[in-house]
């Protein structure tokens, strides 16, 4: 220390006495790492610590202040050594805003303390660190007050959540499953009042006996695994009569302490889906009515299952379903369950290629094709049933063999054509090379109620629907000019004023030089097919609207849950803390232990329910906007400031983009990933978390399937130096409620990474994890760049 002159004492003695009288808790240390020997302590230090000066002077700092066994996450020695090392290296002061460091009481016990610390160097004339002045301010009461306020808020929120939640929530305990909590929604479902609280479940709700619920509760308690049910039927009594209701629910095991092998109770969260189940059944009934339409129509209908080889080349197809007209149209008997090659061994290959392409691409086709092996021609509409993985193809077809024969006969003789044309069921006509129609068959006049004088030339426009005439005229003028066969669909007005849909096919008759000499055309009534297609579209539209309505209801539910359930079980924790503050000392040791367990359990329950609600809120459709991920990480850093400071963590953020996303969900994504890295850090190594990104296209990703070809993505990497995990757990960590460690070692609900994956999926991206045990973890995220 610096020397000053004195007639009665040495300068060093004077400096020490001056330091001892300085207000505040301070000590002077030698920079003899790793011991850091105490050479002087302030009078306030002696008074506050209860130690004697001669017992501490000359001893190492960490010998005087050893590790407390009551602090499982002890970081005091690590952080102080890091601060002292910083001063020695940089010759500058260093502050620690908040640090837990328990103080020995002299009787083998420790007192929990939080300190605000400042460490400053004393430099020699040569500029070297000669001493370190270590000063500490006790902020224990401030930190504990903040902890208590936060806990009280959580208890009150959790309590109000249970009571007022629109979602069904209940809690049963013990081997007889005594009802300890049933919110208003659950009481309404049961048709009971709060009188059931405190009663065994089967005494409170006797009709549940024999429905398998007790067995499910036993299973959840003993295995510790949640049970999920979807649209589960439950019989309950309403107005004295049994009624069947349907519910989605989850049974979650509840542990009062970390040491319990069998859960003490079960939490149930669910909601009534009776309306949507009944609505779906009505849709199924409608589908059956719709199917009866196909059974009664005069066109052939069938469903095929395409069979491919390993290279996706079509080999054959199997008939899964046919309508009654199928046999008449095709001549094939007992086709269901048999393949085409079984029924028609010489069937041409183009049939397999046509239907195979529909199954693989999903593109519907309409075509006319003949089969020499079957001796028939067909007008076919083919479309895939199901999603891109489906290999089922539906056919709606008409046997047009007779039409083909007629068309062939027309080439030989116009008179023969006219005779035959008047006997076919289609409307028929003939025109000159320019498209001037000069002849119609009797079917045309019978259907339209017109005459040749009214219809010749371009008179046919009079019987076309005004909404379609412009389209038809534009099309046929171009078709006449090209001189190639063409077909078109449009509605024609009948003699009774009603319109029916027709398929028109026109063929040019050419001379030896290839010049068109006339046009021959037919109009086939496809109104029944159109009506069937319209019904199909309407049913699809109705089902789509119904699903959209249900999605809106689910979104509203998630919003109400997230917005109105901000006051869950706060009162439970508040009252528990009041009891602890006012009467804790009067309680027996066992009662004190139980009270502490209630508070701890309520805190865990509050956190779990909040995470569940956060996860449910992700189903709500929210608008996308420009989101700067760098700003998101700044906000996350602020939210986790205390944890980062306590663990002396480094959060390194570089090269993050601005992209279109939901701002709140982006914050949830990175908050959970950074929080996860902090939680699973190594106890003896300050966490280092890096977040970086690069722009790639789908071909560079290399993983996983499902990315859109030709689209660009931001690959965002979040990497830490924590405890890591074994590769076989890389998928498991994203499953809700799945944990790789027990609660005593690492706290949490097992929902954070599941929520992160849901956010990425909502944005059309993908996420996966990489890591090795003891070597940290890396999370790779792909998000669309536009």
- Tally of DSSP helical segments: 26
Residues in β-strands, percent: 25-35%
Q: What's the average pLDDT?
A: 83
What structural class results from the helix and strand content?
Answer: alpha+beta
Question: Per the principal axes of the C-alpha atoms, what is the gross shape?
Answer: elongated
Please explain how this structure is put together.
This protein is an alpha+beta fold and about 775 residues long. Helix content is about 40%, strand content about 25%. Strands 2-1-7-6-3 form a five-stranded antiparallel beta sheet. Strands 9-8-12-11-10 form a five-stranded antiparallel beta sheet. Strand 6 and strand 7 (about 130-140) form a beta hairpin.
List the helices and strands and how they pair.
Elements: H1 11-21, E1 25-29, E2 38-41, H2 43-49, H3 53-56, H4 61-64, H5 76-90, E3 94-100, E4 103-104, E5 110-111, E6 114-123, E7 129-138, H6 140-164, E8 168-173, E9 178-182, H7 184-190, H8 201-204, H9 213-223, E10 227-238, E11 241-254, E12 265-272, H10 274-296, E13 300-308, E14 314-322, H11 325-330, H12 340-343, H13 349-361, E15 365-371, E16 376-385, E17 392-399, H14 401-412, H15 414-421, E18 427-431, E19 437-440, H16 442-448, H17 452-455, H18 469-482, E20 486-493, E21 499-510, E22 516-525, H19 527-564, H20 570-583, H21 589-617, E23 625-628, H22 629-639, H23 641-647, E24 650-653, E25 658-661, H24 663-679, E26 688-697, H25 698-701, E27 712-720, H26 752-762, E28 766-771, E29 777-784
Parallel strand pairs: 24-26
Antiparallel strand pairs: 1-2, 1-7, 3-6, 4-5, 6-7, 8-9, 8-12, 10-11, 11-12, 13-14, 13-17, 15-16, 16-17, 18-19, 18-22, 20-21, 21-22, 23-25, 26-27, 27-29, 28-29
Helix pairs in contact: 6-20, 6-21, 10-19, 14-15, 19-21, 20-21, 22-24, 24-26
